[in-house]
Amino acid sequence: MRFAATILFFFAFWELKAAVVKGTITDEQGGPIPYASVFVKNSTYGVTADLKGYFFIELKPGQYTLIFSCISYENLERTVTLTDSKPLYLNIILKESATQIGEISITSGNRDLAKDIMKKVIDKRGEYWGNIENYKCVTYQKSSLEKVLVKQPKIDSAKIKADSVKRAELLRDTTKSGKKKKDINEVFKDGKLNLIESLSETYFAKPGLYKEIIKGYHDYAATDPPWDGKGASQTLEYGEHEIAPVYYGSSNPYLLVSDAQTSDFNFYRNQIDMPSICPKPLLTPAAATATLAYSYDLAGTFYEEGKKIYKIQVKPFYKEESLFNGYIYIQDSTWAIVSVDLNVNSGALLFCKDFKIMINYSEVAPGVFLPVRREFTYTIREGAYNILGNTRINHSAYAVNTTFPDKLFNNEVKRYEDDAFDKDSLFWMAQRPIQLDEKELSYIRTTDSIANYYKSPEFLAELDSSFNEINVWSFLLNGVGHRNRARKTEWYFEPLIAQMIFFGVGGYHHRLGGHFNKEFDNAFYLETDGQIDYGFLNKDVRGKMGIGLTYVPKRFIRTFIRFGDYYDMINSYASLTSAFSRSNYVRNKEFSVAQRMEIVNGLFGELTFEFSDQLPITGMKLEQWSQELFDTINTPTDFTRYTKAELKLELKYRIRQKYVIKNKKKIILGSKWPELKLIYRKGIPGLLNSEVDFDYIEIGTTDEMNWGRFGTSKWSVLAGEFFNRRNLRELEHKYFRGSDQIIFSDPVRSFQLLGVTFKTDQTYFRANFIHHFEGLIGNKIPGISKLRITSAAGGGVLMIPSQNFSHVEFYLGLERIVRIRKQLFRFGIFAVTADNTLVNPKLTYKIGISFYNTFTRKWDY
Prior knowledge:
There is one protein chain. The protein is mostly beta strands. It has a 19-stranded antiparallel β-sheet that branches. Strands 13-14-15-16-17-18-19-8-9-10-20-31-32 form a 13-stranded mixed β-sheet, with helices on both faces. The chain has a 4-stranded antiparallel β-sheet with strand order 3-2-5-6, with no helix packed on it. Strand 28 (585-600) and strand 29 (603-615) form a beta hairpin.
C-alpha cells in the first residue's frame, strides 16, 4: 500500500510540472461558446474548447499571447506568463460581431488571393502526396467520453472530487449491513469519464495499408466484467443460416476515433471516407474539385519560425453536404498545408451534433508533410445528456520511405502485444507526451486505486448479484439464472411470459427452455441450449437440445450436436406472412452433428450430417384463429412420412479478410472484396434407411461497393441446380423468401413482389441490386436538404429456364437515417413494380428498416 501511495504521489507531482492554461470561454451573457479556438499568436498551435466552453492548452514555461476566436465573435488576445508551478486559469468573454473577419479585412481582393493560394495548394497536393510511399511512427492516443446534463452550465470540480471520494468509500465498504451495494457506475452517472490510452507502432504504405502493433493499452473505465457469458456463436431460429461471423468483438459507437484508420483525416487526398461520422466521403478543401464546393477568404497572415503562413477561411456552398468549414493554414512558397482547424457540416453527421478537427503537420523529411498532432472534439446528444468526445493523438519518430519486413502488411491490421494490457502507471508516466487535465487525473487515480478490487471475488460476485437475484419478476418477466464470473459459468431458465406459447402449432403450448454455458481458462467455450413443451389441444410433448464446444477460438472451430422431436419450419427464411402459418411446419425427429471452422483466413466451412424423420402435421387438431389469420396458406403441407440422411457442406470465402488479434482472440473486420459462397447438399439413400437420393449445388457472390460521393451499392448473384433428383422430396426443394404486404425486406437476399411462397426443384439464377445515393442531389437543394432525406433505387431478377419462368422487379425509395441512442436506423418508403410470367405488372408501396452495425460500419442493406 505504501508503494502504491508513493507512486500516486509521484504521479500527481510529475503531472504538475507542465505549464498549463485552462478555463472557460463564454459570451457576454455568461453562456458557454462551444468549440471556440484557442491559438498561440503567430503559430498554428492551438486547441478547441468543448461544448461547455472549457479549454485546456499545454505549453512550455514562458510568455505567450493567446488568441481566442469563434465565428461570429470578435477575436480576443490575452498575454500570459507561464511557469511550471501551477496552472493558469482564465475566464474569457467574447463579444458578438456580425461581421467577424479575422486579423485583416476581407475584401474581394483578399478573396481572389485566397482562391489563388488554394489553387496552388491543389496543384501541389498531388506532389506532396506522391512524395510518400510509406512511413512508420510511434503513436500515442488518448480518447475520452464525458457525460453531462444538457442544462448543466458549469464544471463542478468540487462535486467530481467529492464523488471520487464517495466512490472509493463505496468500494471499501463491503460489509455494511449486508445490503447490496450500488452499481459503482451510478456514482459518476453525471460527469463520468470513459478514458482510454494507447501506445503503438504505426505502419503505413500506399494506397491505404495500415498495420498497428499496440504496445500499451489501458481502458480506465474498467467496469465491464472480464467475461460476460456470451459465446462465439449464436443459433438463429429465423433467417438464412450463417457460418461466417460478421464480427467477433464489440465496440462503443460513441468512440468515433479509435485507431489509425478512423483518425486518418488526410487533407492531401480528394476525399476522406469516415462512415462512422458521415454516410458519404467528405470532400476536402484541397480536392481537385474543391472550388465547386467551397469559397475561400484570406483571414490573416503571420510568420511562424521565419516562414509566412496564410490563414484561409473555408466556407462550404452546401450546408447539408459532407463538407468542412473553418480555417486551413498554408505555408507560403511551398504551398503546403501546415495546420487545419475545421468543423464538419452538422447536417451531414450521423451520431454527432458537432465534429471538429485540429491537425498540425510537420515537414518530417524534405517535401514530406505528415501529422504530428491531431485532436478531434465532438458532441453526441443522448436523452437529457450530452456525450462529449475528445481524442488526442501525437505522432513521433517518423521514418519515411523506408524498408519494411516482408509480409508486414498482411490481413492482420492490428495486433495487441500480450503485455499491452498490463502496463502500469510508471509506463504511462514515461510514455505520455501530453498533459492531462485534473478531471482525467482524478479519474485515473480513482480507477487505479480500485483496480485490484475489480479483479477480486467480491467485485465479481457483486456484478453477478443483479443477474442472480431471484424475485417474483424473475419468474414472471426476466427469467431465473445464475452467473459466476469467477468460474465463467452461467445457467438460465426462461421466464413465465416466454413459457406461454399461445400461438403454437396445434394451439397453446407451455414451454420450458434454458441454457448452460461455460468458458474455460484456455478460451474453450461450452454452450448448451434446450427446450421442452407440452401442447394441451393435441396432448403432445415436443423438445430439442443442442450442445457445442468451441475449442480453437482463433479459428472458430466448433462441434455442435443437435437432437430432438419438435415442430420445424420448412422454409426458415419465409415471408413474415407465411413463416408462422401451419403450411410452413412439419414434425421433425432429428439428430445432427455440425463441424465448423475457419480453414484459412477468410475461408469458413461447416460440414453437417443430419438424420431426420419427417412427419406431416395434417392429422393434428389446429386452432381456429390460425385459419382465420392465415386463410388459404394455413393448410398443412401434405406428404408421405419419410426418413432422410443428408450431408451438407457450406463454404464461405471473404477475400483478403482483415482482422485484429486481441486477448488471444480473432476479431474479424470484414473485407473490401466480394464474398463467395458454395453449398453442396447430398441426400444419402440407404444410410440408416434413408429414403432420399438427391444432389444440389449452389454458388453465389455478394459485395458492397463504395462509389465515393456518388453513394454505395450492394449486390448479390446466386445460382443453384439439383443435378440429381432421383428421390427428391418437396421439403428439400430450394425455397425463396416470399414477399410481405407492406414490408420491404432485405433487397439483396429477397424479392418484394415474388409472392407469399415460392420454391423450385430446377436450375435457377437470381440477381439483386440496390444503390443508396446518400443525398447526391437532395443535399444541394435548399429547404429539401434540411429534411436529410436521401434516395435509393434497385431491382432484382429471378429466372428458372426449365419452367419458362422469369421475374423482374424495380423499386425507388426515399430514406432517412434516425438515431435512437447508440443505434442507427435507416427508414425508407419504396415504390415497387414487378413483372413475371405468372402475373401482370403491378405497383405497390412498402416500408423498410435497415440497421447500422457500429463495429463493421455497414448497413444491413
